[in-house]
Model the fold of this input.
Amino acid sequence: MDYGQLQEFARKHGPVSIMDTQGTLPSGDPDTHDLIQRADRFLWDGLFRERAEMEALLSQSERGLRPGCELCEQLETALIAAREQDRKEGSLDQKNTNPALWRFQDHRLSH
Done:
């Protein structure tokens, strides 16, 4: 996780406070870049998040998913599995992929 990734996440999904054993630093402080590297907790969406959880949320956002939405994760996993199944079967009509893709797209529009 770096400053640019966290800044992009905050732009899309709301403010993030950076926490470590020293406390909080406001955004824009020259030490913010270093603090992101050593921070152990983040405040986002009203909840404190451990570093690993925040990195998972950033990863979801970078993949175009809504951070923290378990259904987005499940539908993405199902879509990947459907694509693999079509590849194994040599299915050019994407009989497995299309329904999974439609469910995934419908859900993303609901956000």
Notes: The radius of gyration is 18 Å. The mean pLDDT is 88. The chain has five helices and four strands.
